[in-house]
């Protein structure tokens, strides 16, 4: 999700830059994602800090270092899952009960 129009940055704690750097250092500035095909850790440099469990839990235990590619992939999957959970406001398919034809 792009930052434009989002309140996400406002919900980050005031010490976010310190937490972010702490996570990057803890994880060795390397992406912690595990590759599906080999089961090995991604070798790309970590550029982003991500919440393991989505939401506003900014505890260091809930944060992980990811490369841009893995972060985008994870965020996209979370967005798709959230969209599926939303209740549709569309009318059900079929004839409307007020249709007298």
From TrEMBL:
Biased composition (Basic and acidic residues): 90-101
Molecular function terms, GO-annotated: endonuclease activity
Top-rank taxon, per record: Bacteria
Keywords: Endonuclease, Hydrolase, Nuclease
Residue ranges, annotated region (Disordered): 74-101
Record has Lipoprotein as a keyword: no
Classification via InterPro entries: HNH_nuc (IPR003615)
Protein name: HNH endonuclease
SMART domains xrefs: HNHc
Domain HNH nuclease: 18-72
